[in-house]
Amino acid sequence: MRSYKDIRNLEDLQARKLELKVEYTLKQNMLKTDTKTFFKQFTLSALIKKYATPNNLFKADEKLNISGTAMSLLLPMVMNKTLFRGAGFLTKAAVGFVSGKVGKSLDAEHLSAIFNSVKGWFGKRKEQKQKKFIDYGIPPDSETY
Hints:
145 residues, mainly alpha, 6 helices
């Protein structure tokens, strides 16, 4: 691209200089956008979207039982800190032992089923509330809803 034979006077030189500046800025902008898109694929949210799909989590959980191990550690602490706060040492030990055993038996499928059932309870209330408003002749998208 180093064809300088067509530059015959100062105007041609200025035009070539302007063309090179435009080409330089275009390439600079393309390089910046390509760099941004390259680094965006390694952000935390992109990695989670790529690798933390339900299928991948279930496969890893079948092999390592990560959810059961986590629940066997977290469930006794949560139970002793919330429900059995004022209980004695023996009660807390028994609760810790039992909830640890229950936590080990939980896997990702059980946890997702529990989550979906709890989510269903709240979803049913919303549907019942909408139905109640519709029964009274109030549309669900009105101001009172």
